[in-house]
Amino acid sequence: MKYALLAAALAAAACGKQTFLAAAFVQTPALPNPVDPAHPFPQYQVVTAYFGTIDTTDPTSIDSSKIAGVADAGVDISFRHVGTDAGNDPSEDRDLYPANTPAASNHWQQTDAGIYTLSSNDEPKLSFEVGQPYRMVLITSAGDAYGAEFVPGANDDMQEFQNTTCSSILGEPISRCIPTYAHGTALTIDRCEGAAPNCVALSSGPQPGFLVVGKVDPNHPTANPTITYTTVPQDAATLLKYELSDQPYRWTSQSIPATAFPSAGLYAVVLVTAKPGKVSGNAFLGSTAVVGSGAAGLIQVQ
To answer: Domain spans of the chain?
Structure first.
């Protein structure tokens, strides 16, 4: 039905180029550091948008060749920060950048034409507030504005990291980590619902979920991890397919291949539970917005 409705809408709107927006806001939690317990791996959040045009002249033939990125758009994100106290961390409305500010003039990174990314490493005020709406606006050089809205929710967890521990170099037990993991072996992840230690297996109808594996450096815990594996859609065409059908991402158990752990070291395994957001009505019908909250654990590969 979803395919049929989209095909019908495309046929009705088959009049040339339309503006396409795909946006994702993802958070991963803080993790302990087995090498230096006093300096854990911090919580990390990143918002990414693909902003471009899509040629719908032939609605029966939509692929990556029909999509072109829009460069040098102005990007803004605003939300309500819920502070922890009235002194050092007061509640406040945050509007990180004026919407007409080009990405090159602030902390937004434009890696390719149409791809815009902002992380909490670059912008500490980009916090992840459960239940608070985030509004993102992108403005073209012609002054046309397109927007997305995210409302972060709760996340699932991974049974494999329930009550797991390893030891720090000082011999202290560290939670959310598996002591040793044999190199060259796949890892199965089973999703569960609820807080540890009572997380129970998902019964039915899981939300879409993505997996990310990143090699981390315990001597530099604030550095960005080196991503070695991900099921997160990485380009406009894959995001468009995700919007057409998210069924492949509604899994309860999934295997991470051994190639995700290419060498010895410490890896963070992250499960991101996705929740749909909203996109402004003036964007292409296949545009999408996703917000994902994460659960994570550490793997020590030897």
So the answer is: 2-301
